[in-house]
Amino acid sequence: MAESTDMDQLLIAFKKFAVHGDTKATGKELNGKNWAKLCKDCKIIDGKNISGTDVDIVFSKVKQKTSRVIMYEEFQKALEELAPKRFKDQRKEEALQSIYRLVEGKEPTNIGVTKVSKTATVDRLTDTSRYTGTHKERFDDSGKGKGREGREEIVENTGYVGGYKDAGTYDTKVKGEK
């Protein structure tokens, strides 16, 4: 019974990595990029026994010739292929269980992907209290933008040219002539 729970956790991890970064993904197939991310995030790639190249080679070996993705069964074969290389000092079954433990229940990390710049220059450029001229009028005292109301020249879709002094007199002129 413990093994079926482990396999459920493995399937959950597979699905989470399969849908990572792709809004149209169904979670039934894993592409090469997400396979490499799985191996990196789950620490299968250790830099000594297994490298990124090894992971790519195993992916190419287990997938169908014309396919660009692997299914769950092929994913398990890939882990079986990597297990003896990652855990050289263990027997094949123990190595497989160890590699399953590395993957079980894990999900993709986004830490370190995009870093927010915390320099004095960026702070100075984004501090709305230091804005001057027309830009200053577009923000309230708290620094929140006023949106369209903060702009002085809002376009009026009346059909008249902006500098036309007799705007709105068309009906009176046309009716007055008849």
From TrEMBL:
The keyword Secreted does not apply. Keywords: Cytoplasm, Cytoskeleton, Microtubule. Pfam families: p25-alpha. One of its GO terms (biological process) is microtubule polymerization. This is Tubulin polymerization-promoting protein family member 3. Transmembrane segments: none annotated. Residues 127-157 are annotated as: Disordered. It is found in: Cytoplasm, Cytoskeleton. Residues 134-154 have a biased composition (Basic and acidic residues). GO terms for cellular component: microtubule. Belongs to the TPPP family. GO terms for molecular function: tubulin binding. InterPro entries: EF-hand-dom_pair, TPP/p25. It comes from the Eukaryota.
